[in-house]
Amino acid sequence: MISPDKLQYIHGGQKRRKLALCFGALERDIIGCAENGCGYNFPSMTRQEYIRRLVEIVLEDPQLASAEKTALEKLLQEEPLDEHRICNRARNALLAIIGTFPAEWDLIIAPHRKTASCEHVLEPKGAENTGNLGPSGEGITRDFYPNLFVYAEDIRSPFNLGSIFRTAEAMGAQGVFLSPGCCDPLHPRAVRSAMGCIEVMEWKRLALDELPNLPIFVLETGGTPLRDFVFPKEGIVIIGSEELGVSPEALAKGTYGQVTIPMKGMKASLNVGVAFGILMEAWTSYIAH
């Protein structure tokens, strides 16, 4: 973080970028996941005072949209100050001026519940030949549905793969299997869109014929409508690539069945991450009830 006095001597795009970085660091500090050495550390003023000073500098920017200026001024007048919301608003207003989409910047990663250390990684039933999934986040214990997995086949977009990890973690999948043709889950864009979930999810690259002995079904058009599908209590769902969908080999592997999300729109098309989210909500609701 930079002193407000120093920021006054910086101009133009550099000033905006420095301010945006400061607001990002502040957001992490506010929600309790500050990066090492990047927590708030100005003894001469409180964090709230520092935030107010930075927002006042943003309000002086001649390129700040009038609607954003009004919104920031309103937030600045509120008592108590909503530190997280005003920092987030200011940061995104600056990114809009810079012309950088938030997905291409450092997203704010929410803190994860940390309890007892996770000393080992569970294997799915019948996974004698798969070895341990990994990595698993140290010091983090996850609550999940045992033997509930997704097999991501040839997902090419790091953003989509990160989204799949995030949904899998949120909905309680035990882990993620990746086909050899999937993009790298440690790609910066995948890590960013996963919001920390790749660090705590179990994952492993496997060919189709290496999948463990669990019920396997596929998410693809032309199958049983979602509302009529009888989900397995444990198993693996295969989701296909953004361009080609599930491969013929994967369709043949899905001996438990094929499930489809009914769509009414003209395009009848969903992003793979969105489709997976709809599927996981239905699957876990079925298991829970």
TrEMBL record:
Q: Name one GO molecular function term.
A: RNA binding
- Domain (tRNA/rRNA methyltransferase SpoU type) spans 148-280
Any one biological process term the GO annotation gives: methylation
The cross-references to PANTHER family, in alphabetical order and at most eight, read:
RRNA METHYLTRANSFERASE 3 (PTHR43191), RRNA METHYLTRANSFERASE 3, MITOCHONDRIAL (PTHR43191:SF2)
Query: Which SUPFAM superfamilies does the entry mention?
Result: alpha/beta knot (SSF75217)
Top-rank taxon: Bacteria
What protein name does the entry list? TrmH family RNA methyltransferase
Q: What is the native source organism of this protein?
A: Candidatus Treponema excrementipullorum
Q: Note the Gene3D superfamilies from the entry.
A: 3.40.1280.10
UniProt entry tagged with the keyword Transferase: yes
Q: Give the record's keywords alphabetically.
A: Methyltransferase, Transferase
Q: Which Pfam families match?
A: SpoU_methylase
Question: By its UniProt entry, which InterPro entries does this protein fall under?
Answer: Alpha/beta_knot_MTases, rRNA_Methyltransferase, SpoU_MeTrfase, tRNA_m1G_MTases_N
